[in-house]
């Protein structure tokens, strides 16, 4: 299902920096009517507010808290595009004393947080014939050993994204699964990736892919290499009816 950003009301979690901030800017660039900046710290969006004025509205959102996300949905019933961008991740191998604690932490935000968003906004997006965009990763498809825990959480979120597509596509809701490689963010720097792509590569790709109606987006150079290897499985298994 095709969706253009122009004249739409959008909501972006983790909108205050990195990829989230770039998504806000690309949406406004392509004519979004309003973008909700869903963040934990309401003081962190000043730059976007100063730049875009009443085109942006800051709202409180904590993906680790079900009540917070339910309240978020109640405040934003006019939303047509929800981008679940917020997530956490840091270098963590599989063997270690803190591995269970770290996995629980990342699952709570990257997986259960996504479920909280999806469940809170499903009826709204169904009513508004909208779209749900989930920020997954190439790590959804391959475990990167130094990011093993993050990779596991993103594999789970990608599986759930497929489930949401099955649940909502016949109800008029477009689901988009985004799979970036290394992007120029704090996380990529901590993980030690060389030559990361710009956040705009992701945000511009989201705008284009919403319009095309595709389920997957592999936006950057590394991600496109993964896409080439994954394409046959995607077409014949993941997207098979």
UniProtKB/TrEMBL annotation:
Any keyword NADP? yes
The record's section on PROSITE patterns has: ADH_SHORT
Tell me the InterPro entries matching this sequence. NAD(P)-bd_dom_sf, Sc_DH/Rdtase_CS, SDR_fam
Q: Which UniProt keywords apply?
A: NADP, Oxidoreductase
* Keyword hit for NADP: yes
Q: Which GO molecular function entries does the Swiss-Prot or TrEMBL record give? A: oxidoreductase activity
- What protein family does this chain belong to? Belongs to the short-chain dehydrogenases/reductases (SDR) family.
* Name under which the protein is recorded: Short-subunit dehydrogenase
Its lineage opens with:
Bacteria, Pseudomonadati, Bacteroidota, Flavobacteriia, Flavobacteriales
């Amino acid at each position: 299902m095709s969706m253009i950003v122009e004249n739409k009301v959008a909501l972006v979690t983790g909108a205050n920096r990195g990829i989230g901030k770039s998504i806000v800017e690309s949406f406004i660039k392509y004519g979004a009517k309003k973008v909700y900046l869903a963040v934990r710290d309401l003081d962190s969006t000043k730059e976007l507010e100063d730049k875009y004025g009443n085109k942006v509205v800051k709202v409180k959102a904590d993906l680790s808290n079900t009540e917070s996300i339910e309240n978020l949905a109640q405040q934003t019933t006019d939303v047509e595009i929800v981008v679940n961008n917020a997530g956490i991740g840091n270098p963590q191998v599989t063997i270690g004393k803190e591995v269970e604690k770290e996995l629980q932490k990342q699952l709570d935000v990257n997986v259960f947080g996504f479920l909280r968003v999806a469940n809170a906004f499903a009826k709204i997006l169904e009513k508004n014939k909208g779209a749900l965009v989930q920020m997954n990763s190439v790590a959804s498809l391959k475990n990167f050993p130094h990011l093993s825990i993050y990779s596991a959480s993103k594999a789970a979120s990608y599986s759930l994204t497929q489930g949401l597509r099955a649940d909502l596509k016949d109800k008029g809701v477009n689901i988009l699964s985004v799979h970036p490689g290394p992007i120029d963010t704090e996380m990529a720097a901590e993980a030690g990736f060389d030559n990361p792509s710009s956040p705009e590569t992701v945000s511009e790709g989201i705008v284009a892919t919403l319009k095309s109606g595709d389920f997957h987006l592999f936006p950057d150079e590394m991600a496109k290499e993964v896409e080439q290897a994954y394409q046959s499985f995607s077409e014949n298994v993941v997207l098979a009816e």
